[in-house]
Design a protein that fits this description.
mainly alpha
Length: 264
C-alpha cells in the first residue's frame, strides 16, 4: 500500500485519497442521519451537548494534526539541509585536494567524481524505496585509504593535508545524516491516532441535526476535504526521499556540473 502511494503520480493519489476521504465522510452522514433524527428529539439539549463535545474534540484533533504536520515538515527540512550540506562539502573536498601532490590528488578527484555518480544514480533511488544505500561506500573507504598513504612535509603541505582531513570528517558527518534520514517516518501509532480522530470527526459532524440533507453533506464534505488534504500532504512528506514532495539529488547534480566536471 505504501509503495503504491509513493510511486504513483500525485494526479492519481491525490484525487483517490482526498476523494475517498470525502466520500466516506458523506456516507457516514447519510448512514447516521435517520438515527440522529430519532435521538435529537431533545432539541436544545442535544445541540448544547454536541457543541460542547465537538468543540473540545476539535481543539485536541486540530492541535494533533498541527503538531504532526510541523514535525513531519521539520524532518523533511532537516533531510533536505543534510543533502545540500553533504553536496557542498563534497565540492569543498574536491577543491581541497588541489593542494596535494598530483600522484595523490588525481586518484582522489577520480574517486570523488565516481562517488557523486553513485550517489545520484544508486543512493537516491535506493533511498526512495526506503533502503539504506551502500553503493557509494566503496568510494568513501578508498578515499580514506588514500589519505593514509599521504606523507605531507611540514609547512604548507602539512597545512593543506590537515584541511583535507578536516573537510573529509565534515563530509562523513553530513553523509551519515543524509543516510540516516532514509528511515525517518512517523510511528504507526501516530497514524492510528490520526485516522481514529478523523473517523470520530466524521461521526460528530454526522451527529449534527441538519434538516436539509444537501447542506449537511456540503458541511461534512468541505471539512473532510480540508482534513484529507492536510493528511495527504503530511503522509507525502512523511518519507523525505519518496513521494511527490521529496528530497532529490539536485544539490549533488549541481555540484557535479559546476565544480567537479568544470574542473575535470
Amino acid at each position: 500500500m505504501l509503495e503504491w502511494f509513493y510511486r504513483t503520480s500525485v494526479w492519481i493519489t491525490l484525487p483517490v485519497f482526498v476523494g475517498g476521504f470525502v466520500a466516506v465522510s458523506c456516507l457516514i452522514v447519510l448512514a447516521l442521519r435517520p438515527v440522529v433524527h430519532r435521538l435529537a428529539s431533545g432539541g436544545k439539549e442535544w445541540d448544547r451537548a454536541l457543541a460542547h463535545v465537538t468543540g473540545s474534540f476539535g481543539v485536541f484533533f486540530g492541535i494533533l494534526l498541527a503538531l504532526v504536520a510541523v514535525s513531519v515538515y521539520e524532518n523533511f527540512s532537516d533531510t533536505r539541509e543534510a543533502a545540500i550540506e553533504e553536496a557542498g562539502r563534497v565540492g569543498a573536498l574536491f577543491r581541497a585536494t588541489a593542494g596535494l601532490p598530483d600522484e595523490v590528488a588525481d586518484p582522489m578527484r577520480e574517486l570523488i567524481d565516481a562517488y557523486m555518480h553513485e550517489v545520484i544514480q544508486a543512493d537516491f533511488p535506493q533511498q526512495q524505496l526506503g533502503i539504506l544505500p551502500d553503493a557509494s561506500d566503496a568510494q568513501v573507504d578508498e578515499f580514506e585509504r588514500l589519505m593514509h598513504t599521504v606523507e605531507a612535509e611540514p609547512g604548507d603541505d602539512q597545512a593543506q593535508f590537515q584541511q583535507v582531513l578536516a573537510t573529509f570528517d565534515d563530509f562523513v558527518e553530513s553523509r551519515r545524516a543524509r543516510i540516516d534520514a532514509t528511515s525517518l517516518a512517523l510511528p504507526p501509532l501516530f497514524w492510528l491516532v490520526i485516522w481514529v480522530g478523523a473517523a470520530v470527526n466524521a461521526v460528530l459532524i454526522a451527529f449534527i441535526d441538519v434538516k436539509n440533507p444537501r447542506l449537511h453533506l456540503l458541511m461534512a464534505g468541505l471539512l473532510a476535504l480540508f482534513i484529507g488534504l492536510v493528511m495527504f500532504v503530511t503522509a507525502d512528506m512523511d518519507h523525505p526521499y519518496a513521494g511527490t514532495i521529496s528530497v532529490g539529488p539536485g544539490a549533488f547534480e549541481r555540484v557535479l556540473v559546476q565544480i567537479i566536471d568544470a574542473r575535470g
